[in-house]
Please model this.
Amino acid sequence: MIVRQIMKQDIITLRSDDPISLALASMKKNKIRHIPIVNESNQLVGIVTERDVKDASPSIFQLELKEDFLNKPIKKIMSTNLITAHPLDFVEEVAAILIDNRIGCLPILQDHQLVGLITESDLLYTFVKLTGADQPASHIEIKVPNKAGMLAEVASIFLKRKANIASALIYPDTDEKFKILVFRIQTINVTMIINDLKAEGYQVLSPDMSENAR
Model:
């Protein structure tokens, strides 16, 4: 999946000379925490966040300075050392950038123009969709040897039971000789499938249907 498929394109933007009060009002009205700042050519020159405003705002004990602060231009508090992405970047790469740099959003640029914005919330929503967690399904985790072909082998067992796979994830086990396959399958009763998996020698981690787990 690429960024263009999930980025917001209808973006609220402001100019660097707009007052901070306008940024606050826009955030409140549109329920957003990040506003890209552009010039007359729609080129990105900065970004202002809810955190920027809070960090720069006078304390509650300096109320007389509050009005003066809100009338200052956004350029006084906006961030200008920006990290950006391209619409054709892969979503997982953008997610890694957000985590590594501890930032909440990435402006998306194409031909030096602001064309979109992607946030932590967008990525979380996408993760839920990709994993099928928003749809009724059963969750099965299986520990398998870390070698080629294991996904296909396990999936063939679901096929025999005509169980549709809603999503499949793979992540490493603590022992590098193994990996964990996580399936969401569109069936409620997984007893027969789990029995089939165990009969083939696979270790089913979840659900634990042993007598002790009941």
Summary: The mean pLDDT is 89. The chain is about 30% helix and 25% strand.
